[in-house]
Structures
1.
Amino acid sequence: MGTVGLNGLTVAAFESRMAAEIIRLIERHGGVPLVTPALREIPLDDNSAALKFGVQLTTERVDMLILLTGVGTTALFDLLKTRYPWPSIVEALKQTALVARGPKPVAALKALGLQPTLTVPEPNTWIDLVSTLDEYRPVKKLRVAVQEYGVSNPDLLEALKQRGAEVFQVPIYRWALPEDLGPLRQALNNIIDGKVSVLLITNAAQVDHVMQVLEKDGKIEPFRAALNKMVVASIGPTASERLRHHDWPIDFEPSHPKMGILVKETSKQTIAILKNKKEKE
């Protein structure tokens, strides 16, 4: 067991939507937060895919709707409500299997008075999602809509197509870089300069955005070198996939992919991980 508490160490995170919450959590566990958003959530300029989905749902047939995020689930149905009476949406959904990738889409559905047909178990990766579908029923010749968030998941889409599904994407929102990159660049410089001991990754898209900025600035290698002397904690398998893709180290992953558990469990292991890294230098 590691020493409990972050002992005044600086802890960086790139969280945007839950920035205030992660700051409180870091402080509660004895760390000094350095939280700068790497993401800006913006609505799609063109909601045509979501509106086309509404037409398919209400006048044609959608056999299965895969909901990947809670925010996206809420946004999708809010959009549909601007075009269709809610009772007609509910009636159309009776013919549609609702697949929720984890607790956030489940909560969003329940807030709308809806129940998921299937809930993907932790750690809620696309692999877990496909395995859940395989156990449920073959998707061959089914019309499967995938509510997307941020960026598409080509592995998920390909797995569905390989199984013979007719897949159509329903993008609801996407990520952009922050309009002002100054705070993010400063945080990255602090990491490169060795002023940060812990980095918490709470969203896979954060990693892609940080790499974009580092590439523009020609600082990828010094950043990676700095990470090897720190504790890099990933909230869960989906984020860890992106970290591995970009050759970032992963020193810790919590028992459950939740922000509170990430900070708590990382705080207990940080001192031991840092000591181990120092001994290997």
2.
Amino acid sequence: MSDLEPHRPRPAVPAREPILLLPGAVTALCMLLIVVHLASTFGLDEEGQLQLSLWLGFLPYRLIDPLAVPGGMLPILWTLFTHALLHAGFEHLIFNTLWLAIFATPVARRYGTVPTLLVFFLSAAVGAIAFAATTLPDIAILIGASGGVAGLTGAATRFMFQPVIVERDPETGEPIVLGRRLASLRELLSSSRPRAFIIIWVGLNAAVPLLPLLMGAEFVQIAWQAHLGGFFTGLLLVPLFERGPGLRVED
């Protein structure tokens, strides 16, 4: 090209779209659940998996007879949280991972990484306490992320049903999306959509203990207590992470 030729600007290169549209915190948490399950499934024999459940799963019976189980009382300190990283099988893992991706995404986009993880693990801990309160003195081990994910579900419920608030720029007249406002508990119960969601959620989980009567089985392996405890924890905890007027964009 000679020096006299006019300069032609290069065509703009379109921005590369991310492979996953999930926030980084949600992607990392999903990958952690998957890696832990794959490692335990293919890296441990049956005895090793049992020991993993005893040391990382939540076993309320430790509170009654700590000498009867490995580690005594001490593992209570971490198993309140680490039980959320274990799963009983691939179906359990897939269900919880998909549930996590759906409800953790709006929470992570609104509040960021640290609040999302705090809601997840604190909800898992409260769910474990609810599990202990309703299963003792029976010997039962709680594993699974459902309590933590239920907490993220409760947190998202506080704003995901609220209308998007849009204002116009005073100079240009262009619409400006301000986000969704965090609803109060009274507003949740007075609005039909979130009220119906909460009633259905609580009703389905509260009905789990009745399933053995309907199905003719001895028991159903669903930690409904952890679901309810986690859900209400997220529902009540999330206002602590609001900043400013409580309007955020979750898109």
3.
Amino acid sequence: MPTLPTIIVPARLASTRFPRKLLADTGGMPLILRTAQRLDKEAPEFEKFFAVDGDELGDVLSGTGYNVILTNPDLPSGTDRIAQANEQLNRTEVINVQADEPLVKREHILALAESLQVPGADLATLAVPFAKVEDFLDPNQVKVVLDEQGFALYFSRAPIPFCRDSEAEQYFLGAESYKPLKHMGLYAYTAPFLAAFAGSKQGVLEKFECLEQLRATEQGFKISVSVVSSGSIGVDHPDDLKRIEF
């Protein structure tokens, strides 16, 4: 049986839209521990580590029995944080689950592991069809477009693909309509990709859109995208906590 990828959760306290959100109270427990417990439930057979930006998060996790790796707090992205952690772990395949995804599902983790095996893939990620026009138009929800082989062509906060001759609503009319895809911020990586990414500079498109995955596409890496049936709820704002039952 092939060795399973290792799950590494990048975790930092700095957050522009929701400061210190990973320590936000979720029914008597910090958000970061909700995500950790969810992973225990949904992916018990996977090895797990938390790549943290300091002792404050690290102590919360290690104090409840989770494996912690301290990383440079000034790293620009979660992928950079995972790459630094994997310099110690030296795993051949790694899955990135965001620390603010307390409702991640088993199907997501298994889809990532499978998608990374697609020939030519340097990394893998997930997408789910948008269900509402307002979500498609929301710049806080990232969109992705794919080529015919299921590799990512581009990611954007703008509504892509843009249909010049009709309104966005036309995408959502009828079963045969094209369904734009929402990108889910979970990834799987090969070790060679992580090593290359760790030594690279932020790209122009990455800086424009504030999307770290664009550094990979700018550099020519192939991102395999698995379209799953259901999404999750990430915590970006305090109001997002009201949408989750703990």
